[in-house]
Amino acid sequence: MEFNQQRVLKRLEEMIKIDSPSYKESHMTDYLQKYFEERGLEVYRDQAGKIIGNDNSGNLIVHIPGTLDGEAICFNAHQDTVEPGHSIEPIFENGILTSKGNTILAADDKSGIAMMMECLELIKETNTPHRNMYFLFTICEENGMLGAKNLDYSKLPVKNICVLDGASKLGGITKSGAGKDTMKITFHGKMAHGGIEPEKGINAIAVAASAINRIQFGRISADTTSNIGHIEGGGATNIVPDKVTFTCEVRSHTQQQIQEQVNLIREACKDAAKEFGATVDIDIDHFCPVYKPNLDSYMTKVMIKALEMEGITPHIKISNGSGDGNIFASYGYDCASVSTGMYSVHTTDEYLVMEDFAKALNIVWRLMTETLI
After folding, report:
1. pTM over cut 0.90
2. Is cis: bond before 21, omega within 30 of 0?
3. In what helix (H) or strand (E) does residue 58 lie, and over which residues does it extend?
4. Structural domains in the chain plus CATH codes
5. Dist. CA 372–CA 246, nearest whole Å
6. Pick from 120, 263, 273, 331: most CB atoms within 10 A?
7. Between the CA of residue 265 and those of 144, 235, 270, 276, 334, what are the distances in Å?
8. Tens digits of residue pLDDT in 52-90
């Protein structure tokens, strides 16, 4: 299907210029709700934003009744972006969309949203029969999939979800997606004057350093990684610091391996605190579950068929990323994903290749308008 590139670029530029970092997606939510209501579709807007302490944004669900045979499919993309994502200036040259260079582009995931919109426009213009569909636009995907975690799933009566949020080569079929636990660890020492009576204090920085030195971070095994990403605490050089906090994560493809590494980190921190006479608080967040798609599911089979019909050879992959699909799968949905042609996401070098976007759009078009199996 030939899409209207000029229309797509105009819409992308409109959406990219709407600031929508996580927790502040309300203008994007308003834009999408208005767009679909103007086309005569009923839009359900939930209260997820208020639940997570967001602004007036929310998850949106749009039902698009169809007549084509085949199971219903929900198509999903997220509304939010990472930082720096304010006042983005998109630039289109030589078939590639980029930002000015001091911000992200926000193709992640506004390219997925634009794909859904363009397919809907083409369906209406050509009067093409299509399957029963739902469009789901989530909030706060980038900040812990909080929109997906607070969605009312009774509003989504389907078995299949196609996630339009990928930055890898087209054709990937995920057989395993990593789960992740995050940890916030705070050491409490004792404040004292660092020059006059340091022996009366307990240096929380020293305790944290000792704990970190006992822990293996990085590549733990073929299936498991662990990373410390932030540490803060202390103040003036003449004060023994009484509080230090660091955060870390553990990813793996089985919950058992996640738990084993989390236990090692926890015990190392307790041992260090005990050795120095300090105390430690350890908060653990089960950020997302391990994602094991059913490769025999209807969703996977139609995805493979659509790829093959576009001349793309499907390839099985293992992903160490995480996203809304992890959460959907934990609620019993069969999921598959489509890469949208975006690259170098979460950086100021992010770009969207329109040729790859067009290939991905054809995949989505087939999923919407053909029975396939």
Report:
1. yes
2. no
3. none
4. 5-177+291-369 (3.40.630.10), 179-288 (3.30.70.360)
5. 50
6. 273
7. 22, 26, 9, 17, 34
8. 987 789 999 999 999 999 999 999 999 999 999 999 999
